[in-house]
């Protein structure tokens, strides 16, 4: 396993702006990459001086549009810019570019000779946006024409299986420097676990310009080093993950990784976006992941694919935690216990004392919540757009059920002591509440209701906005995430999270 370097990709419009980024993130990075194609046109003429403006090695990159960049002025102009940046080499290597990125099909003998004469290493890159490479070693050897060249392969995976194959092949490639990267949300594990790919470096972006590289999945260097403990990942690091789809936002890594640091455990918890639960298990087996938190939409699939499940999973019919134990995957459910603690904290009582509860949705989270409401002595009605799903869940726990539509506003009112929103409707939505982002848009809140939304991003969801304006007590789902995460932590590590270490 190599010690992968952290590269900061600079996509600011001016050289000074980019130099300031290097200074800000200097303690978190090893190398910088100047993306000349993002510079203002006037600034591009002065790139030669940039290495002397910073204190770390720098890669010169002028990325073409067809390779995911912005440069569209033609190869003649681009070749001239490369030549200008290499010209008048300084005797002090630190004042020259340390690396230069040429695409696999870009061959200009004069530039190659100049780079070698000035001691500039060539990164020979291949960008593939329609899927993976079939044979990574073979492709690298074809690209690497001299011992001084570093082959780089970046591809956009179509599914997690493509990323699994990269890890499967890359583990045995350790006899020459190379850079491997799976792009996009599916490829995030290749950036955090780059050392397992024996990758020479992993790319990051400043928080300030992260939108420029959002689509290809860059992480900012502070998150990479501080949250994911990147510099301390080694062959003994135990890996855990949260898996689901699309998994664009999750606070689970923050909770678990903070616990690992406080307990001084050589563990890491990563996001694992996956197009199926079966692919998540396949990736976990290949990389050596020891446990996974499971989120939408795979809680039922996880139950069916696990080698063994505990009693609670069987009763609830959903699995949100799997642990690799003695060569098999064991399924657990921590949603129920986590929700119990969160709801008891919210309403100030561990018993519902026959309060009437409306459960919005009938998915995996709703199953755990229905189980908890039953255990706490409450009566409930399941409201869901697909009535058959609502009926199946209601029948399991002896509750009522109804379709989620205006015709049942009166029934919702009768079960409105506590309204629990369990769907992903409203997730990531900061728009004004409307029919699309508020699942009970037709309901008129009276002000007496307790409203709990398991969504936690945004902190105040559309349904919470409407309820709060009516005088209701509201709560988002972070408390449930937190408490169920503490239970997962115990399953994963055998150690209690410790009340004193709980994040605020």
Question: Could you explain how this protein is built, in words?
Answer:
The protein has 18 helices and 20 strands. The protein has helices at residues 15-24, 41-44, 75-86, 109-117, 136-143, 160-170, 188-192, 221-227, 252-262, 277-287, 299-305, 311-316, 335-347, 364-375, 387-397, 409-414, 462-469, 478-493, and strands spanning 5-10, 31-35, 58-61, 99-103, 121-128, 150-155, 179-182, 201-204, 238-244, 267-273, 289-294, 308-309, 321-325, 328-332, 356-360, 379-384, 400-403, 418-421, 450-453, 473-475. It has an eight-stranded parallel beta sheet. The chain has a six-stranded mixed beta sheet with strand order 10-9-11-13-14-12, with helices on both faces. A six-stranded parallel beta sheet has the order 17-16-15-18-19-20, sandwiched between helices. The protein is an alpha/beta fold. Helices cover 33% and strands 20% of the residues. It is elongated, with a radius of gyration of 26 Å.
């Amino acid at each position: 396993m190599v010690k992968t370097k952290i590269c900061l990709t600079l996509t600011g419009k001016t050289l000074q702006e980019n130099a300031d980024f290097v200074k800000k993130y200097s303690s978190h990075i090893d190398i910088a990459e100047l993306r000349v194609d993002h510079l203002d046109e006037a600034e591009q003429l002065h790139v030669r001086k940039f290495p002397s403006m910073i204190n770390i090695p720098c890669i010169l990159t002028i990325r073409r549009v067809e390779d995911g960049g912005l440069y569209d002025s033609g190869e003649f102009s681009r070749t001239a810019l490369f030549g200008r940046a290499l010209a008048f080499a300084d005797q002090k290597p630190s004042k020259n570019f340390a690396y230069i990125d040429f695409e696999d099909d870009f061959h200009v003998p004069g530039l190659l000779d100049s780079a070698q004469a000035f001691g500039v290493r060539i990164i020979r890159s291949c960008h593939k946006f329609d899927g993976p490479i079939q044979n990574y070693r073979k492709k690298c050897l074809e690209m690497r024409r001299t011992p001084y060249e570093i082959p780089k392969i970046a591809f956009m995976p179509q599914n997690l299986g493509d990323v699994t194959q990269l890890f499967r092949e890359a583990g045995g490639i350790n006899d020459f420097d190379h850079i491997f990267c799976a792009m996009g949300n599916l490829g995030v594990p290749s950036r955090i676990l780059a050392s397992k790919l024996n990758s020479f470096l992993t790319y990051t972006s400043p928080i300030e310009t992260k939108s420029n590289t959002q689509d290809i999945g860059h992480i900012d260097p502070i998150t990479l080093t501080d949250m994911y403990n990147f510099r301390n990942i080694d062959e003994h690091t135990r890996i855990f993950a949260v898996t689901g789809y699309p998994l664009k936002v999750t606070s689970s890594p923050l909770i678990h990784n903070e616990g690992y640091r406080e307990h001084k455990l050589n563990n890491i918890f990563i996001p694992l976006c996956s197009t199926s639960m079966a692919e998540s298990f396949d990736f976990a087996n290949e990389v050596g992941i020891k446990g996974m938190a499971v989120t939408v939409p795979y809680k039922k699939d996880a139950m069916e694919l696990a080698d063994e499940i505990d009693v609670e999973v069987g009763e609830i019919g959903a699995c949100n935690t799997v642990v690799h134990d003695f060569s098999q995957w064991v399924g657990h459910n921590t949603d129920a216990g986590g929700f119990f603690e969160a709801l008891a904290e919210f309403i100030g009582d561990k018993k519902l004392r026959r309060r009437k509860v409306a459960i919005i949705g009938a998915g995996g989270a709703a199953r755990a919540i229905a189980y908890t409401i039953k255990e706490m002595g409450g009566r409930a009605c399941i409201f869901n757009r697909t009535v058959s799903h609502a009926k199946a869940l209601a029948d399991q726990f002896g509750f009522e059920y109804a379709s989620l539509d205006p015709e049942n506003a009166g029934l919702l009112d009768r079960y409105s002591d506590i309204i629990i929103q369990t769907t992903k409707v409203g997730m990531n939505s900061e728009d004004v509440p409307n029919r699309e982002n508020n699942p009970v848009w037709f309901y008129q809140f009276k002000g007496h209701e307790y409203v709990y939304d398991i969504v936690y991003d945004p902190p105040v969801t559309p349904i919470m906005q409407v309820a709060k304006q009516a005088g209701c007590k509201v709560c988002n789902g972070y408390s449930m995430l937190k408490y169920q995460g503490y239970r997962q932590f115990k399953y994963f590590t055998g150690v209690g999270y410790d009340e004193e270490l709980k994040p605020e």
